[in-house]
Please model this.
Amino acid sequence: MAISDRVKTGPEKAPHRSLWKALGLTDEELARPLIGVVSAQSECVPGHNHLRNIAQAVKDGIRMAGGVPVEFPAIGVCDGIAMGHVGMKYSLASRELIADSCESMAIAHGFDGMVFIPNCDKIVPGMLMAARRLNLPALVVSGGPMMPGRMPGGKGDMDLNSVFEAVGAYKAGKIDDDCLNAVESSACPGCGSCSGMFTANSMNCITEVIGMALPGNGTIAAVDAARIRLAKQSGMRVVKMVEEGLTPDKIMTEAAFRNALCLDMALGCSTNTVLHLPAIAHEAGIDFDLAWVNEASAKVPNLCHLAPAGHHHVIDLHLAGGVMGVLSELYGRGLLYEDALTVSGKTLGEEIAVAKNYNHDVIRPFDAPYSATGGLMILRGNLAPDGAVVKRSAVASEMLVHEGPARVFDSEDAAIAAIYEGQIRPGDVVVIRYEGPKGGPGMREMLSPTSAICGMGLDKEVALITDGRFSGATRGAAIGHVSPEAASGGMIGLIEEGDTIAIDIPSGKLELKVDEATLAARREKWVCPPPNVTRGYLARYAKLVSSANKGAIVE
Model:
């Protein structure tokens, strides 16, 4: 019995069929599998503006394979537009809304299978969470990366991060109004997810290795006709998956998540993957241990330096062989679970076996990596007993080990103001707290302060730590997800101006160098600030959200 039979089959379902027919469906169509197609298309997000074309291609593929597509929408926040103001409080929180709304629509309408069409930061993990929760035959086909920008007459490619850093340069008096306008007008040339290895592209690439998307999903450009062909193939494939009974529980296993971390290390993905993978794993009933991150980092070398870590962009990665090209360097070395199943019906090993690394400048060989260890690192110590994360591949060598005085701010806004006013000096460790999942609420992404530090030329001299999170575009010694967060009584809430903070990224250490007696006295006096949001969705979210080390899931 098909799942959709509960909304279309038998005499008692005549009222249901009447409503389907009101939508234009015929008796012949109602005899076929109903496939939900959830598209996050909107005019709010450059990465999603073109998704109607992807959705149409998916629906064409479903029809070609004998299914009936039924499209419905999902929300999506543009992190770049939400950045640096109260809107960013809603970005991470929207992930749960996306998952919940997809669940609601799929079950209410009795779909036999699902195609999820995201592209940007929280929409990809939100839809993956829904896919595993629903456990219907399903796959993901994203909108693809943006092309990098280029200034008129310029030689170097740019992206959104270039604009944020230009603001820092402007504040430091290094560029004028005309130059700033030229950068902002050229950096983002059209549709697609921002062109570097930021959160959106990190998650879209990981979707391939986790087995929930066909090869090419993470790297085919938004403007490439191959993206439309991939969407049609995805539509055709999901109908076959319904026939085969291939569901996410057979794909999104612990092995798949460990494979995802291996790719993460080789690519140098966004720190946000360490927030989203545990949340997706939670839907699968898998206890994602942050120790897995450092285990993967210790054995998988960093093979790619895509922006912001280097000058290559995702389109360069695609031409070099894409995700499978990266995995081809890890293939056969005992690093991957190569028998893990994918939505193609093939194992990951079978997909990698036909792949190739075409450009050893973009994807370095396994034996000639950028570093022998992976792109991310979990740090622990008295300042982060439950962990903190840093994108080590984007940290200048001078800052891998650093010790300096704390400059303490109780909000991102206060920190940005101080940075722009020139109050931060070489050697400082900027501390931004009460910006975690509960304290923010919403765990704001902090590209503005890190980019300002870089734009002012301080990225090789200043570190930043926070219980908030960072954009995938962030570079420098930016350490986020400090857990427990300040609002939950974490040590980061006890730091005082001028305290010495020691950072040792290679050793995985993050320490506040203050004696225990002093800390105990501070803890006795500590009072959690009152919540800064008391109404609406964010107030409910703050009451239910878990710590960052658990993926900031709503429990």
Remarks:
- The radius of gyration is 23 Å.
- The longest strand covers residues 401-409.
- The chain has a mean pLDDT of 96.
